[in-house]
Design goal:
- This protein folds into 4 domains: about 200 residues, P-loop containing nucleotide triphosphate hydrolases (Rossmann fold, 3-Layer(aba) Sandwich), CATH 3.40.50; about 180 residues, Rossmann fold; about 70 residues, Arc Repressor Mutant, subunit A (Orthogonal Bundle), CATH 1.10.10; about 190 residues, Rossmann fold (3-Layer(aba) Sandwich).
- About 40% of the residues lie in helices and about 15% in strands.
- Helix 24 links the parallel strand 23 and strand 24.
- It has 24 helices and 24 strands.
- Its EC number is 5.6.2.4.
- It is an enzyme of class 5 (isomerase).
């Protein structure tokens, strides 16, 4: 196809009769469609990388080639890409976790050459059925193989994903001469060299990375209350809509609910987010993406789940409530803003919790060697185990088991293999590469230190970003807060708004949901298994805070270590119950979870709380045998089993609603078993209360 015909496709795709190719776009298309090269394209967000592979797909299909395969890391990105493909008349389909019922029909269309583009996640490459029944049968017909967000292939990439390691092995099995395209906006020289080494003989096209429309600014506000107050004061002043990036799911909810309270139309977005109005998380996330795109939301508060590939040309601002882990991550996320408008804000807020959160992420990025060895040993001992059975045998968190299995399964010479639902040990004599893990961890620590430098630098902020991305054409932007000090957003916050935000954080209690099922073989002494009868279940309870967080969480943590919960916490729980929760029917007595290690801590608090609520306190739950600390139990089976036969009821149970108090809640098993015993002994409805949640699942 000549350039003029390609320009016609470009204009059709963009719905712009005057559109022209940007620098390097036509060259990239030629290299793929004519020269059939392996190509790595590194261009800033908004440059039009998807145009390259979709126009190339159209050209190759018109040449009689087979479908393009696109590896895409996120559902949001796939949805965006499918919509883009439609504008070129490209029949694009996806096989992903959200459309299981359609897989068989899609498979038939792909095998019968009725599809122009198949989008899959890298996780799909773990499926032998997909490889054997879809990918290999069409391998010699594939017109183009695309790896979107190709930096994920590299161990050195800011967003390395284990499943991307499978891609290199798949590519080695593809026919020679098949064009391959890797695209990314975020690859420095280290990442580029790693990708070149893995894929081999790949050409690189790298463009300018500066973002002319962005006004960058950094603001350090150490406590969350000050940052919430800043958002309240400044979000309404900003034109259009934008994204606020937050590091954890729980902080996403905190920020979103605060903005709603302040009259800002916002919503929370993260992996697994749910709404009662939608049948599943995927459909709700799609709704939120569309609502932001159509400017029906002022702000979408999100984790990095809304990141790669989300394309809203008129996004007016990207604000980080907490600093990201690296400059490259920041560049990619802030680059969502200002793609097709002249001015957009990129504001990096930073606070005291950032370093601790990233330390946790770094320390949990790779499975510890002892866990790897434990899982390999248990697979050696048995002829195949499911992850559920591994949980029962080993006291390890489900997430940690899954992480370790994933880590081992993507190794080039894997020591494990999957048969059906079971994992089995292979004959590979496996040794973990500890030195490599240490190198990567140290590199990520260095990247975090560079973020700290960026926060306080006096040089042009865009220039700083370009330097870290190894951009050969570094230049001052003339728009950031260091280049133009008179256009900065305010860095100070009104004290009355800080006070309001502080009160909000102290009133951010949340639900303790009842457990409804007992794991098999977990409670032989109590002889309970399967579904827990509804009349033995707790009501939805309340927890005052999150352990160590702003608001009450930090105070709970301090007081627990001191051995006495201050009266302020009694007042806070009482206010929560009487003014905001108001359970109905209201409990007429109170009891608590006992402890043999510290028998006075919770019971003393319970006594003071009962007096404040003007209801009697009856300490009738007894701990009849010592158990291992619940915090040492790593998964649901062991958390439940550890409490088997530990408690019994000793005293007269009131046949009236009751508050069941503990200082901390994590797995909810202590509340579940204590409630069951109270109900069996004749109590009324049971309402759990805790001072803090120590759960790490958020």
């Amino acid at each position: 196809m000549d350039k003029n015909n390609a320009i016609t496709l470009l204009r059709k795709s963009l719905n712009n009769p005057n559109a022209q190719f940007r620098d390097d776009q036509w060259e990239s298309i030629q290299k793929l469609t004519t020269a059939k090269e392996k190509l790595l394209v590194i261009q800033r967000t908004g440059w039009g990388k998807s145009l390259v592979y979709f126009i190339s797909t159209r050209i190759l299909r018109d040449q009689g080639k087979g479908p393009s395969i696109i590896i895409s890391p996120l559902l949001a990105l796939m949805r965006n890409q499918i919509e883009s493909a439609k504008r070129l008349g490209i029949k694009a389909v996806s096989i992903n976790s959200a459309n299981f019922d359609d897989w068989e029909e899609i498979k038939k269309k792909v095998l019968n050459d009725k599809v122009d583009t198949l989008l899959i996640s890298p996780e799909r490459l773990a499926s032998e059925e997909f490889i054997e029944k879809i990918l290999y049968p069409i391998a010699d017909k594939i017109g183009l193989f695309v790896v979107d967000e190709a930096h994920c292939i590299s161990d050195w990439g800011h967003d390395f994903r284990p499943d991307y390691r499978r891609i290199v092995g798949i590519l080695k099995g593809m026919p020679k001469g098949m064009p391959i395209l890797g695209t990314t906006a975020t690859a420095n020289n280290r990442v580029i060299n790693d990708i070149k080494e893995q894929i081999g003989n790949i050409n690189v096209i790298k463009g300018l990375l500066t973002r002319d429309s962005l006004k960058l600014q950094n603001i350090i506000l150490n406590d969350q209350a000050s940052r919430l107050a800043w958002l309240k004061e400044n979000i309404p002043k900003l034109k259009g809509s934008g994204i606020i990036y937050v590091l954890t799911k729980r902080d996403v909810r905190t920020v979103s609910e605060w903005l709603e309270k302040c009259g800002v139309n916002s919503a929370a977005y993260y992996s697994g987010v749910k709404s009662d109005d939608f049948e599943d998380s995927n459909s709700y996330r799609e709704y939120l993406e569309d609502a932001l795109y159509d400017n029906k939301l002022k702000v979408l508060v999100s984790t990095t789940a809304l990141g790669m590939g989300y394309d809203k040309p008129d996004l007016n601002f990207v604000i980080h409530f907490q600093a990201p882990n690296s400059i490259i991550s920041y560049y990619q996320q802030v680059g969502r803003a200002g793609r097709a408008i002249d001015n957009a804000y990129g504001i990096l807020l930073s606070g005291q919790e950032d370093a601790e959160i990233h330390k946790y992420f770094r320390e949990h990025a790779f499975p510890p060697q002892e866990i790897v060895e434990s899982i390999l040993q248990v697979l050696d001992d048995y002829d195949g185990l499911s992850t559920i059975k591994i949980e029962e045998i080993l006291n390890l968190r489900k997430g940690k088991i899954e992480q370790t299995i994933k880590y081992l399964s993507v190794e080039e010479f894997s020591p494990i293999t999957k048969e059906g639902s079971q994992w089995k040990r292979t004959a590979i004599n496996y040794k973990m590469d500890i030195e490599k893990i240490e190198r990567l961890t140290n590199q990520r620590l260095l990247e975090w230190s560079i973020v700290q430098d960026y926060l306080v630098t006096k040089q042009c902020l865009m220039e700083f970003l370009q330097k870290e991305l190894d951009d050969p054409n570094i230049q001052k932007c003339g728009k950031c807060s260091n280049c133009q000090t008179d256009t900065k957003l305010p860095i100070s916050v009104a004290q009355n708004n800080i006070i309001e935000a502080t009160i909000y954080l102290k009133q951010s209690e949340f639900d303790i949901l009842p457990r409804k099922q007992i794991a098999a073989n977990a409670l032989p002494t109590y002889n309970i298994k399967g579904n827990l009868k509804i009349n033995f279940q707790a009501e939805t309870g309340k927890v005052l805070s999150r352990w160590g967080d702003s608001g009450w969480g930090k105070i709970v943590s301090e007081d627990k270590h001191l051995g006495y919960f201050r009266d302020d916490l009694v007042d806070a729980i009482c206010e929560m119950i009487l003014n905001r929760w108001q359970p109905n029917p209201f409990p007429e007595w109170l009891t608590c979870i006992p402890s043999l290690r510290n028998p006075e801590l919770v019971s003393n608090f319970a006594e003071r709380l009962s007096k404040k609520l003007k209801i009697p306190f009856f300490p009738i739950i007894k701990k009849v045998k010592e158990s291992h600390p619940q915090k040492e139990q790593e998964n649901s089976f062991h958390q439940c089993n550890n409490l088997d036969g530990v408690f019994e009821i000793d005293g007269i149970v009131q046949n009236k609603p009751v508050f069941l108090l503990d200082d901390a809640v994590d797995s909810r098993w202590t509340f579940t078993i204590a409630t069951m015993l109270l109900k069996k002994a004749g109590s009324g409805l049971v309402y759990p209360i805790a001072l803090a949640s120590t759960s790490v699942n958020e």
